[in-house]
Amino acid sequence: MRSPKLGKREEAATANWSNLCLDVIQMVLEKLSATDFNRAKAVCSGWLSASRQSVRKQNQIPWLILFPYERSYGYSCRMLNPAEKGLVYRSRNLGVEFTQSRCVATCGSWLLMYLVHGQPKLYILNPLTRDRINLPPLESRICDIIFSPQEVRRFCLGDQQSRRERALTEEEMSDLSSKEEKSVLWVDERSKNYLVVWSHGGCCLFFSKKGDNVWRMFPYVNGLWDFVCKGLMLYMYTRLSLIEIYDFSGDSPVSLTHAPFPFSYPPRFLSAFIIHRIAVTTSGEALMVRIYNIHKTSRSFYVYKKNHATNKWDEMASLGDQALIVDLGITVSAKDVQGFKSNSIYFSGVTFGTSHIFIYSLATHKVEPFMASTNKFFDARWFIPDV
């Protein structure tokens, strides 16, 4: 006579999970994380069919994408999910041009790539699906006005006579992958509508949207320290210490700040190396971040939020359940996210280099490494893939 326990084990081992009723499968699927949801679809055809009728959780966990040196990983990249410690994903072959490009911005699953070899150009790439969106040539004629570096300086000083319409020459185009320039990206996952904005000379911006065949110029006479994109909204921190917000949903940018508000703050301490960054919360509120590097081996971060009652900027003692990602310029929810710490600041990318993939805790004011640096990769970027 067989043991009852042995019989149950044999029954469990031979259970056909595809025979579960549709409602039960859907209940299981809708409780899974975005990553596990995609894995569960591969169980069988029945689970795949049930997944199409289930509401999949949208991934909210930022991943780290690592860019290898040319050909060291066969024209691919590596991706790390903080919630899956020790697990590294490898993309498919992304082509020779990928290894010759630098990532200058990310949005969702999409990367804004800048080809630095040969004729410089910008393009948008999804490393998960290998979908690509080609952008207008950088040397294409702009619908408004373009400046040489010398003309930019004269225009910033108020000399409007130097304005003229022409195309940028190769010598005048700055390296968009350098620390002095910045680019931002927004892509709608479903419609593939996009907005790309990049700076030139620190005084004006160029932008392109879906349907454009040229780059359009958005001159900004006060100069820019930093800017970040959230949807079709562009948040700018100017060299006059003003914060302005522009809506790019229409044909031309529209200002949403009729009275730009200044960012004023009490000095913390003297430092030869201070960086200011603007960030946007999940609710669309602007934050200012001051980054100090006193001894070159340590960093201190201070986050400020506008107090509309006093019209002053208050230092935030805590981000609560949020985490701030400097190179994305946004905060994300870190509540109940395994491997991602709340009330922390994550920084990496071109500004800091891959040897500085760190986490700064606002609670302890200490810096800890997110991962050990490696000589196999020249850059790292945060992105939030649609997995």
Overall body shape: globular
Distance between the termini: 49 Å
Number of helical elements = 6
Strand proportion: 25-35%
Largest sheet: 5 strands, antiparallel
| Share of residues in helices | 10-25%
Model regions low in confidence, pLDDT < 50 over at least 5 residues: 143-165
Compute the average pLDDT: 77
Task: Provide an overview of this structure.
The chain has 387 residues and is mostly beta strands. 11% of the residues lie in helices and 34% in strands. Strands 12, 13, 14, 15 and 16 form a five-stranded antiparallel β-sheet that branches. Strand 2 and strand 3 (88-90) form a beta hairpin. Helix 2 (22-29) packs across helix 4 (45-51). It is globular, with a radius of gyration of 24 Å. The termini are far apart. The model is unreliable at 143-165 (pLDDT under 50).
What's this, in brief?
This protein has 6 helices and 26 strands. The chain has 387 residues and is mainly beta.
Write the layout of secondary structure elements.
Layout: H1 4-13, H2 22-29, H3 34-40, H4 45-51, E1 63-68, E2 78-80, E3 88-90, H5 96-99, E4 101-107, E5 110-115, E6 121-125, E7 132-134, H6 149-156, E8 183-187, E9 194-200, E10 204-209, E11 216-219, E12 224-230, E13 233-238, E14 242-247, E15 254-255, E16 261-262, E17 274-280, E18 286-292, E19 300-307, E20 312-315, E21 322-325, E22 330-333, E23 344-347, E24 358-361, E25 367-369, E26 377-383
Parallel strand pairs: 21-23
Antiparallel strand pairs: 1-2, 1-26, 2-3, 4-5, 5-6, 6-7, 8-9, 9-10, 10-11, 12-13, 13-14, 14-15, 14-16, 17-18, 18-19, 19-20, 21-22, 23-24, 24-25
Helix pairs in contact: 2-4
